[in-house]
Amino acid sequence: MVSVRAVYEIAQVKALDECFKMRNVSLENVVKSIVGSARSLGIKIVNDLSPEEYRLFLEQREEKLKADVILAAAAAAEALSGKKK
Predict the structure, then answer these.
(1) Which residues form the Large ribosomal subunit protein uL11 C-terminal domain (predicted)?
(2) Using CA atoms, how far apart are residues 74 and 26, in angstroms rounded to an integer?
(3) What is the pLDDT of residues 44-63, one digit of tens each?
(4) Domain containing residue 77
């Protein structure tokens, strides 16, 4: 999850990249490019993020990361047990 403000700040930095400067890309189009990339990566863009919403997001993210580690470990163990047979 990322705020519109953060997207704008990222765009200001990205607009300085040679690939954008050479094509004389407007800041608006840089923002659109970043929004498109974020969406394709599954990143949600929100207007504003309160401290409480951000805390909740971080907690949910931490839980998901832990679950992903457990699933990866289980898959690795299963793959190893399959090779031993």
Answers:
(1) 2-45
(2) 48
(3) 999 887 888 878 888 998 99
(4) 50-85
Phi-psi region of 42 (alpha: psi -120 to 50; beta: other; left: phi over 0): left
How many domains, the chain? 2
| Structural element, H or E, at residue 3 | strand 2-3
Extract the tokens encoding 46: 């929100």
Whether residue 58 is found in the same domain as residue 80: yes
CB atoms closer than 10 angstroms to residue 3: 15
Do 59 and 32 sit in the same domain of this protein? no
User: H or E stretch including 54?
Assistant: helix 51-84
Distances (CA, A) of 33 to 15, 24, 38, 43: 11, 14, 9, 13
